[in-house]
Write a structure and sequence with these properties.
heterodimer, A: alpha/beta, 16 helices, 12 strands, about 45% helix, disordered N terminus, B: about 350 residues, alpha/beta, five-stranded mixed beta sheet, 11 helices
Chain lengths: ~400, ~350
């Protein structure tokens, strides 16, 4: 078979090189990816380069990495609490006659010593790379949605606010917006294709809540068509507009059914930021304030960006003395990643706290956050029991409180 | 064998942080031993041939790097020659050189189990997260989270949390100097019974969750239950009523309309004003929750709040199996197994 047949089938994502020795949780792109892939349990960096290819015909992913990283990658893949899951591994080694270390037999048996070729390569942020290499369990789908929201963040804020002068999340990694958009869209679509193959009834029986809607047959066809279009060198122009009071995704290259589906699962939750903008516009805090933001699953750098953009548009940034990101055991890795974005984007002093569904812990976290002087704006999005105990504690002890729920208006 | 007895926990259990799975358990270890620098898992089996299939789970549960040792009544012998897969390390309990140490720890565990369980039930979500750190996290991440993210007040929240943190630091080589916090013995005072429950019921698509909510509400012994719902969640309410009406003296469903943030919260406060408890089932829209808290603060109502949360519930035969194990190790019994100590159910937790 000629090499060109292999190249036709695959798109490749690669981590954009980045490093910051000041950030405590991870200091470069590959350790950031390992951090996210292991639910924030590890942050070891890789010895070689890592890439992931997406097959345009099936949506299946192949992780390509240096053979000296084999053990680490296998360990990340094997742990049920960790999030990484790809269909195939492909192992590379340096050019020359260097013999692979012990274990070459198993790699040959699994077809992991594979020629690496692809039609197109894009550099992306660690979040998008993690999205592409995640499984399709609930957290994996959440990360795919989160990464695509991150890529669309500037377009979303323009639909809500018309303009934002805040640095977008992908900019702190010096990643081009177009590449991030394409890479995260590919990650999301490949995830949707794989998700659609699951037995829907079995999935409903296994999950008690937040079951992602399966795409329709037409939306699924749209996924394959778009992947194929991208693979053939085509580009995709995406925009976000407000239609009938809802944010909608628009593109000439994607089918209507696919756009409707993606608008629902990606933009649906973000419509709430229009309310957040209205509430902050109508009820601006007087004087200095601190901001406390609950992070639920699917919330990530896009949410932080939209909040900063809203503060900036209402000239509130200078009065913001500090930002608290309130994580839970589930959202902790995404919150740590968002903390990096805030620190590198010039946002006010930002810190992370870990709360949980346990009311006793929520109250202690409230204690810490209330140490700041000035008023407090609380963006409520965490688990029900946390919101109740946290909100009750802060309202009991502080007079100048503004609470804004991050859930859609009930009508 | 040990200069100092390692810490021991019986039926150590870990769950996925997103508890939305019908079965969220990741792993259960019969006896977890925590040392300075790591941990080991002891799995107890009645007979050695029970061990080989059971050991397969550790290849897929990410515990492979840590030692897993099986303990049985006798060693693997001729009787197991038909085993079709490799056997793990199986040691007969009569040959354990640290048996006295193990017995001391198991007796202490039996005595303090109720106190431990009560604390774990109250702080389950954060305790589970700390257990995840203990099993899976790197020393660097543990140091960052424990020393730089959690505040002193949060770390000292309870003896359970302090003990978990000390164990993590021991296992990861961070700090072996601090002693372990004592587990308080005995159960805490039971909270007062709930005469009237006012339950906020949102739209719930999962039949599994509806059943769990009904089971939880039916088991609270309430005299009166009012289910507050929207038009969209009325069907869920009817299903719940159908499942528990025989257990509750008075149960009804009220549909709220209009501006639901205002009407749902107002109705809840109104219904609960006379010795009622407002209970949230599943995830309630945050606007409703904030309105509820505002109303309770404005009207200075001392209405209790509670939530149905996934919590560990004791399994009835665990302490009995623990006693049998202790007897076997003392040479007075045959059984060398231990049951699971807990399962996850929805429980009503005071806010």
């Amino acid at each position: 078979m000629s090499a060109s047949i292999y190249e036709q089938e695959k798109l490749c994502l690669k981590l954009k090189e980045w490093s910051d020795s000041n950030f405590p949780f991870f200091s470069n792109s590959s350790s950031a990816w390992i951090f996210l892939a292991t639910h924030g349990m590890w942050s070891e960096k890789l010895k070689g380069e890592v890439r992931v290819t997406v097959d345009a015909l099936s949506g299946e992913t192949t992780l390509i990495f240096f053979h000296e990283d084999y053990g680490l990658i296998r360990a990340v893949d094997a742990n049920p609490v960790f999030h990484m899951s790809v269909e195939k591994f492909a192992v590379t080694k340096k050019e020359g006659k260097e013999v692979s270390p012990v274990g070459v037999h198993i790699r040959m048996k699994k077809g992991e010593i594979e020629r690496v070729s692809f039609r197109k390569e894009i550099e992306v942020t660690p979040l998008t790379f993690h999205a592409a290499t995640s499984g399709i369990h609930r957290s994996g789908i959440s990360y795919r949605i989160m990464a695509f929201q991150q890529a669309l963040s500037r377009k979303i804020s323009e639909a809500i606010l018309q303009k934002s002068d805040v640095k977008a999340p992908y900019e702190v990694f010096s990643v081009d917006e177009r590449h991030e958009m394409e890479g995260s869209l590919i990650s999301l679509i490949s995830g949707v294709i794989k998700w659609s193959k699951l037995d829907a009834k079995a999935v409903e029986a296994e999950l008690t809540t937040s079951v992602l809607e399966m795409p329709s047959a037409k939306a699924l066809r749209g996924c394959y068509d778009l992947l194929s279009h991208l693979l053939q060198g085509g580009e995709v122009d995406l925009s976000v507009v407000e239609e009938e009071k809802k944010l909608s995704l628009k593109s000439k290259q994607a089918s209507r059914e696919l756009l409707e589906y993606l608008s629902k699962i990606v933009l649906g939750r973000l419509n709430v930021y229009k309310r957040v903008h209205e509430e902050l516009k109508e009820g601006k805090p007087e004087g200095e304030f601190s901001l406390a933001i609950d992070f639920s699953e699917q919330m990530g750098p896009c949410d932080a960006y939209l909040l900063l953009s809203i503060l900036s548009s209402e000239n509130l940034m200078e009065d913001c003395r500090g930002i608290w990101l309130i994580a839970t055991p589930l959202s902790y890795p995404a919150v740590a990643y968002t903390l990096l974005y805030l620190k590198r984007s010039g946002a006010p002093d930002s810190r992370m706290a870990i709360s949980s569904e346990d009311p006793a812990l929520s109250r202690r976290v409230a204690d810490r956050i209330l140490e700041f002087d000035g008023s407090l704006i609380y963006i409520a999005a965490g688990p029900t029991s946390h919101v109740l105990s946290f909100a009750r504690e802060i309202m009991r002890r502080k007079e100048k409180i503004k609470t804004i729920p991050l859930s859609p208006h009930f009508r | 064998m040990f200069q100092e007895c390692p810490f021991l926990e019986a039926s150590f259990s870990l769950y996925h942080p997103d508890m939305v799975y019908a079965n969220p358990k990741v792993v259960e270890v019969d006896l977890l031993l925590v040392f300075n620098g790591g941990y080991a898992c002891l799995e107890l089996k009645k007979k050695p041939s029970d061990a080989h299939r059971d050991s397969l789970k550790f290849f897929v549960n990410g515990l492979a790097p840590q030692p897993v040792v099986y303990v049985s009544k006798r060693s693997i012998g001729k009787g197991e020659s038909e085993l079709g897969i490799s056997n793990p390390l199986v040691i007969p309990h009569g040959e354990i050189s640290f048996k006295e140490c193990l017995l001391d720890k198991l007796r202490e565990w039996r005595e303090k189990f109720d106190g431990f369980f009560e604390e774990r039930r109250e702080l389950f979500s954060i305790d589970n997260f700390l257990c995840m750190l203990l099993l899976y996290a790197s020393p660097k991440i543990c140091r960052l989270l424990l020393d730089e993210v959690l505040s002193d007040e949060e770390k000292n929240l309870s003896p359970l949390i302090k003990r978990r943190i000390s164990l993590i630091k021991r296992a990861k080589g961070l700090d072996n100097s601090t002693g372990l916090e004592e587990i308080p013995a005995g159960e805490k005072e039971k909270s007062e019974g709930m005469e009237k429950l006012v339950v906020l019921v949102p739209t719930i698509k999962s039949e599994v969750l509806i059943n769990k909510i009904a089971e939880a509400l039916g088991g609270l012994g309430a005299g009166e239950v009012v289910l507050l719902c929207t038009k969209q969640s009325a069907k869920e309410c009817r299903e719940i009523i159908g499942m528990i009406k025989d257990k509750i003296k008075s149960i009804k469903c009220e549909i709220v309309e209009g501006d639901l943030e205002e009407s749902w919260s107002s109705k809840a406060v109104e219904e609960a004003s006379n010795k009622g408890v407002i209970v949230t089932a599943a995830e309630i829209p945050k606007g409703v929750l904030l309105k509820l808290v505002e109303k309770l603060a404005d009207e200075k109502k001392s209405v209790k709040l509670a939530s149905l949360l996934p919590r560990p519930v004791k399994k009835g035969d665990f302490l009995k199996s623990l006693s049998s194990l202790i007897s076997a190790l003392e040479g007075r019994g045959e059984c060398c197994e231990i049951g699971e100590r807990e399962e996850i159910k929805l429980e009503c937790i005071d806010i």
